Amino acid sequence: MRGKESISFTFPDIQEFWGRLVRRNVLSSALSLMICLATIATRFGLEDGPYLAIFLAYCGIQLALSLAYWTRQNKLIPRIVQRFAVEFMLRTGIPTLPGDVDVLRTKQTVFARDEDGEPHLWTVRRRRDVFTIAPA
């Protein structure tokens, strides 16, 4: 790739990462809404028993979901970085990608050398589950 054109691509690992992020946010919002409704119901005359039970259930579910999300995310991020390096190599022709690149950031610039040693500067953008790379 020698011109100023850009290439967009996605792959299953980043789609899974994005899907998990969306599901986690929706579940967290639903659980927060549940605790708000329980608080409002308590203000209107319900006794503290249901409120306390709902609050404890909320805390337990939030903790379990956070731990599950965190462990799955820690396993998924190295796969995403490795798969991005392969896709980057296939689409640009540059065989190596620096190991310290955080491909999950929204926008960044990557410096890489091709097999002839010629330096290239690339702009990498991620919007949701689609990566776009272009020469800088």
Please characterize this protein's 3D structure.
There is one protein chain. A hairpin with a 2-residue loop joins strand 3 (about 120-125) and strand 4 (about 130-135). This protein has a four-stranded antiparallel β-sheet, with helices on one face. With about 140 residues, it is an alpha+beta fold. Helix 1 (about 10-45) packs antiparallel against helix 2. The chain has helices at about 10-45, 50-90, and strands at about 5-10, 105-115, 120-125, 130-135. About 5% of the residues are buried. It is built from two helices and four strands, in the order βααβββ.
What percent of residues adopt helix (DSSP H or I)?
55-70%
Cross-sheet strand order for the largest sheet:
1-4-3-2
Please give the count of helices: 2
The overall pLDDT average reads 79
Shape: elongated
Which class of secondary structure composition applies to the elements?
alpha+beta
What share of residues are in beta strands? 15-25%
The secondary-structure element order is EHHEEE
Radius of gyration, taken over Cα atoms and rounded to an integer in Å: 22 Å
Characterize the biggest β-sheet. 4 strands, antiparallel
Count the beta strands.
4
Name its key features.
136 residues; alpha+beta; 4 strands; elongated; 2 helices
Task: Please summarize what this structure is.
Helices cover 57% and strands 18% of the residues. By secondary structure, the protein is an alpha+beta fold.
Secondary structure blueprint with pairings:
Layout: E1 7-9, H1 12-43, H2 48-92, E2 107-113, E3 119-127, E4 130-135
Helix pairs in contact: 1-2
